[in-house]
Design goal:
The protein is of the alpha+beta class and 172 residues long. The protein has 5 helices and 6 strands. It is elongated.
């Protein structure tokens, strides 16, 4: 499972978020990463946002196209009725998809991948707990030792290049 941070879209397999997306796909690293639940407009949007509010699931509404307000001015088309991307935190995605399943007119693209999503959420929660379990003194020690190891590698590279350069000069 890959993720486009700009589009906020999950990608499964080799599929791109949508045609024309040229953004770099990466793994989700944070449990609170914003993920697109769906694109909805009009009545479906109102129903879904109401259900998300009732379930205490945090969400954001983002225009699908950045020119949404300009579009309203030029065409007279109300932005409130146009398609809006509903974005929820990655940790709340399973519950939000369950609510989305009750609205039959909206696409259910994420339902087939719920096992993979749930497994990734559990893995991120375990990683977070493991990071919390490290004491501040231990964390500082690891940071200092990592910095020293990095400096030692740089010194080794510099001395190695110097030795090779000296050896090449001795040949001429």
């Amino acid at each position: 499972m890959k993720y486009c941070k700009t589009c906020k879209q999950l990608c499964f397999g080799e599929a791109l978020p949508f045609d024309g997306c040229k953004h770099k796909l990466r793994e989700i690293e944070d449990i609170n990463e914003p993920v697109r639940l769906c694109v909805a407009g009009g009545t479906e949007r109102a129903m879904l946002t109401g259900m998300l509010k009732d379930a205490n699931i945090p969400y954001m509404e983002e225009p699908v196209y950045p020119q949404g307000v300009a579009n309203e001015i030029v065409t007279g088309y109300d932005v409130k009725l146009s398609n809006i991307s509903i974005v929820v935190p990655f940790s709340a995605l399973p519950k939000a998809v369950e609510l989305l399943g009750t609205i039959e007119t909206l696409p259910h693209d994420l339902e087939p991948h719920m096992d993979e999503i749930t497994a990734r959420i559990e893995r991120l929660k375990a990683d977070r707990e493991e990071a919390k379990s490290m004491s501040p003194a231990m964390r500082t020690t690891v940071k200092v030792l990592s910095a020293l190891a990095f400096l030692a590698l740089i010194a080794l590279a510099v001395f190695g290049v110097d030795a090779i350069t000296g050896w090449i000069k001795s040949l001429f």
